[in-house]
């Protein structure tokens, strides 16, 4: 597992998983491109999600809605009025922060100056998580204690947002030594605005969707009317969303353009609690089944004061990234809020008629809302390992075989004696079913290590014995073990291995 994000960022760049967007022009903050390996990894994650949540179920259908919708949608959903973060600017450095993400510590140095006389308390802000702030304070407190020869007491961490105005003026901003350079927090709407049509006037304003969910609600009636579904059922969508985040950071974790994988699950009001419990568990287990097995994964129920006013319960699936515990997915019990809002704003009837009970009502909704980029990042962090093999350190990405960008690499041991031809024939055969890779360049050990770094679970090698007995070598990424299989059975053997059937000789 990974402890240092910089290592992953550099591996992602070096091996073609993730690049900064428009890098040749200096990049653009909050936007990222997926390279040849990254696009396969992310696609496998989205495909696994689609297969497990849509194709394998009888109670789910899919949708693919447009990114730009009638702007009334965003009035109804509350995004035009309320989808904002509190922003503060630093007048000295021109840096911009989220007021709920600057943590301020009031410290005790505060109470005594170096002559031992009482002095005014001061406050310093630190952009970052509460954990980062706490760690910083602990160090600072120890230093001060040493300097003044006395304990400095327990400093406290407060979000800037919660300070009153008089105290805000005393705060030293995260990147300066001056007091009072931070502005009052202002609400900043996160939706990207654009204009539809030739006129750039207020009446032509439209928004890039900040979530895929509203396209689902807006199509609820269409899906019900086309007659394929009966309550309880869900509608799923995977697609791009855009948020003009004030402070994009932590690699792809907080981007301005990202992909969501969302489900709106509609049910009878009296069954919503049960469905909420079901989705909370099912979604958590999904990450575990795909390899997020460590104790870095956690399910956290929101406190009542964190809940949106319409939600009776929400849980976050969180992963302990090297930069802190952060949300991968939220599962929310949203009641009938969304459908009711759209009924109000559109004037259309979005209620549901239950044929069996002869009842009409507005369905309740449970929403599991996940981010494809955040899942990709978590799977990368979890897969990352540095092993000692034969006195050398190898970097390996231990992806679950379903997620691995390349499923197998095929090598001739050397570039002669018919080995390249035999290996290429196997490669062509396997390529019909899987994303596989052919490589004949360089020493075999180096080729193995390159595949380890790409997370390829298996390598198949044609060697001199192959011509004698029609067998080839298979090497397992995780254990580095090798064994021989009949050449003719390579395809079946790979299928079995990818499906998790045991490796010969395993306990
Ligand atoms: P956060 O509090 O981290 O901003 P959120 O609670 O606003 O996230 P939701 O609105 O619940 O997020 O969005 C659902 C999911 O979409 C998140 O769990 C996350 O996986 C993904 N997501 C949201 N914002 C971003 C972003 N800026 N970059 C990447 N993924 C995101």
Whole-number radius of gyration? Answer: 27 Å
Major sheet attributes: 7 strands, mixed
Q: Tell me, what is the CATH class of the largest domain? A: Alpha Beta
Structural class: alpha+beta
Total strands: 27
Mean pLDDT score: 89
Spans of at least 5 consecutive residues whose pLDDT stays below 50 are 107-113, 117-122
Strand content: 25-35%
Neighbour order of strands in the largest sheet: 3-13-14-20-17-16-15
The CATH fourth-level homologous superfamily of the largest domain: Bira Bifunctional Protein, Domain 2
Rounded to the nearest angstrom, the distance between the terminal CA atoms is: 24 Å
The appropriate CATH architecture of the largest domain is 2-Layer Sandwich
Which ligands occur here? adenosine-5'-triphosphate
**Proportion of residues in helical segments:** 25-40%
The dominant shape is globular
Q: How many helices in DSSP terms? A: 15
Number of domains: 3
> Would you give the CATH topology of the largest domain?
BirA Bifunctional Protein, domain 2
